[in-house]
Amino acid sequence: MRFMMIVKGNQDYEAGLPPPPELMAAIGQLSQEAAREGTLISNGGLLPSSAGARVRVQNGRLSVTDGPFSEARELVGGFAIFELPSKAAAIEAGRRFMQVHADILGPAWEGELEIRPMMDGAPQDCRDVR
């Protein structure tokens, strides 16, 4: 089953500050391991919301709003797509990824990773994903 891991942004991300080189090296190592195992399908980071736009439909009308957007904690900073056997395996992969952040950035760092199963093919009943 495919899972998307969505890393939330923070104030440093929205300010355009690059992650510390140690963190990028550790993430690179995790990515290489997952690629060798054949579980990593794709991953990447996103530029701050100031480089983006939102398209909204409301009352049948389209509107476009250029970034930046408020609430950095609600914005996606990066993603990874994995092929894993279960939700438990996805949670373990997510824990390893976030532990690298905690180890390198220290106890004051706060972050969030969302794990979502992906629909493959025909619509399916998503209430019982394990």
Describe the structure.
The chain is an alpha+beta fold and 130 residues long. 31% of the residues lie in helices and 29% in strands. The protein has one domain: Alpha-Beta Plaits (2-Layer Sandwich), CATH 3.30.70. It is built from three helices and six strands, in the order βααββββαβ. The strands form two sheets. It has a four-stranded antiparallel beta sheet with strand order 2-5-1-6. It is globular, with a radius of gyration of 17 Å. The model has no long low-confidence stretch (mean pLDDT 91).
CATH third-tier fold name: Alpha-Beta Plaits
| Major sheet details | 4 strands, antiparallel
How does the overall form come out from the CA principal axes?
A: globular
- Uncertain residue segments: none
So, the CATH homologous superfamily?
Answer: Dimeric alpha+beta barrel
Number of domains: 1
| Mean pLDDT across all amino acids | 91
CATH class: Alpha Beta
State the helicity in percent bands.
25-40%
> Element order, helices and strands?
EHHEEEEHE
Assembly type of the chains comes to: single chain
Distance between the termini: 10 Å
Content of β-strand: 25-35%
Total DSSP helices:
3
Alpha-beta classification: alpha+beta
* CA radius of gyration: 17 Å
Strand order of the largest sheet: 2-5-1-6
